[in-house]
Amino acid sequence: MGVPTVPVITRSFEELVKSIAFKKGIPGMRIVFTPHPVTDRTPEVCRKYILGRDPVSGRPMLDVILDGLTRPPAAEDRRAGPIARPARPRLLEPMAEDELQKYFLDNGYTDGFPVVPPTERRVAEMLKGTSREPGEIVGRMRPSDPHEAWEYTVEMVAANAVMAGAKPEQFPAILAIASTGVTSLFSSTSSFARMAVFNGPIVGEIGMNAGIGAMGPFNHANAAIGRAWTLISRNLGGSGKPGETYLGSQGTPLNYSNICFPEAEAALPPGWNPLHVQKGFKPSDSVVSLFSGWSLNNVAWFSPMPIHEVIRGWLEHFFSTSVSQATLILDPIVAGDIAAAGFGSKEAYIDYLAKNTGTPSWLYWQTRQNELEKAKEGVEPFAGYLRLGDAGVVPVPRFGRGRGGRSAIEVVVTGGSTNAYWFGGDFSHLTSVAVDPWR
Amino acid sequence: MKIRIVCILLAALVSAGLTLDLSRAEGEARIAVLNPQGILPPIERIPMAPRAESLEGKTIYVVDTKFPRTRAFVETLHRVLQETYPKTVWVLRDKLGNYQVDDPNLWKEIREKGHGVIMGIGH
């Protein structure tokens, strides 16, 4: 900034803000803390906080503010130049396996479960799964925008793949995910989850499961690739340290091995393209598509209405952390029923949903303060929307185009056709990348 | 005699085997593994701005970063500072856009007209 600066931060973010200040090159930053939270507090409560004590230093908050703006910086805080960082040798000191498991757990290298020790022999075996050089840089990853990004090599990804219990033939799929730089442990006070959907020949080559229990813990490739993503996010992307690089208030069990499964391409109805073809790849390409969201509902609503209408109704009214993006994961039976109802492609059904899904009144007014004020002044069409009442549906499409002009609704097909189930949730497509360059 | 020799040999072998097992358990237990962590980026220290001895007669900005539903806190902070330190000019300003948007014009103004800044607040 160039002038004395004092940020005021709530108590819950002490570890985060001190870490960020250090990584941005201002370890001596003067930070003032207030009780948490301050959102929706009355002016009277805020005044009490401000005239009270900084909950971290224990000193009166106003004294801490003045001190931050007037006390001369220490000599080292007035200097420029590099800050020394701890060395990270390629090999750790040898230790007994029990000690190693405890060391990895205590240092946050795991997902809470034991890992396969990444010995040189095992890592060398994993490296046989790719033609890439061990020292090649694969990518950079960070927990979220304000954080620093770490770099990582092919060998480092291999070490984490070993830890996850993966096999060399699965390594190109893991490298492809790592190359995106997308962390599976995104840091936000909400608890993000991630999803990885595979398409193309790689699915059969490494024996992924798109049949019964595709999204469950029943297949080694699905499980190990998903687990590797989380270990990579922690160890190579600097994510997942609660309070510092992970702030999800409740966390999510989906982060253990993410939602990792292939699309059931052989079971797609005629005319329905696989996901990777929808994203511009050839059918013969092996591709992984990454999604971000929070939660999924699992539904089989046996209704007199056709299933494509049941899904439309669910989409209109579902409520989650994000309310304007959605992904449907359909069992092949459901996809077949929708196709039989006249939807010859995923895109045709998505367009139908986008055009015929209005916005429930309660949701419309929650997200449109300006329109609500106009409605109360009698301005049309908002006044008319308000007359619909709380139970009405405002004729404004709930789902339009998503980020970058992409559809805000995605459709994926997987499952074993044991019944007409489907998942719906608030996931959105982030990116699709080819696996083949990492073979 | 032969039986005794065989027994002694067997006992020796068993004993040797046990010793071997124990030493192998200790030796094998120490394994070297690769460091699973990525490469840390360098950090360049940013020198902190010099401070004035007193804020009397100085202009200090109080910037609302526009985190949702925290306006009451920033306004109250500005009011309390005005009441408590009336010899300082406290300027309340909104940052451009939401809390994720940069505002280089405001930072420039603060550098040109201000002697310090208080930034708040989230959550």
Walk me through the structure:
The complex is a heterodimer of chains A (439) and B (123). Chain A has 439 residues and is α/β, with parallel strands linked by helices. Chain A has 16 helices and 16 strands. Chain A has helices spanning 14-23, 43-51, 61-70, 97-106, 120-127, 154-163, 171-179, 202-205, 220-235, 275-278, 307-317, 332-340, 346-356, 361-366, 369-376, 382-387; strands at 5-10, 32-34, 81-83, 95-96, 137-141, 150-153, 193-199, 259-262, 287-293, 296-299, 326-330, 359-360, 393-394, 409-413, 422-425, 428-434. Chain A has a 4-stranded mixed beta sheet with strand order 8-7-9-16. Chain A has a 4-stranded mixed beta sheet with strand order 10-15-11-14. In chain A, helix 1 (14-23) links the parallel strand 1 and strand 2 (32-34). In chain A, helix 6 packs across helix 9 (220-235). Chain A is flat. The model of chain A has no long low-confidence stretch (mean pLDDT 95). With 123 residues, chain B is of the alpha/beta class. Chain B has a domain at 59-120. Chain B contains 3 helices and 5 strands. Chain B has a 3-stranded parallel beta sheet, sandwiched between helices. Chain B is elongated. Chain B starts with a helix and ends with a strand. At the A-B interface, strand 1, helix 2, helix 3, strand 3 and strand 4 of A face strand 1, strand 2, helix 2, helix 3 and strand 5 of B. Strand 4 of chain A pairs antiparallel with strand 1 (30-31) of chain B.
- Overall average pLDDT of chain A: 95
Count of beta strands of chain B: 5
Q: What is the SS-derived class of chain B? A: alpha/beta
What fraction strand of chain A?
Answer: 15-25%
**Total beta strands of chain A:** 16
* Major sheet description of chain A: 4 strands, mixed
- Rounded radius of gyration of chain A (Å): 25 Å
Largest beta sheet: strand ordering of chain A: 8-7-9-16
> What is the ordering of alpha helices and beta strands of chain B?
HEEEHEHE
Multimerization state: heterodimer
Q: Total number of helical segments of chain B?
A: 3
Name the chain pair whose interface involves the most residues: A-B, 90 and 55 residues
Query: How far is the first residue's CA from the last residue's CA of chain B?
Result: 89 Å
What fraction of the residues of chain B are assigned to beta strands by DSSP?
A: 15-25%
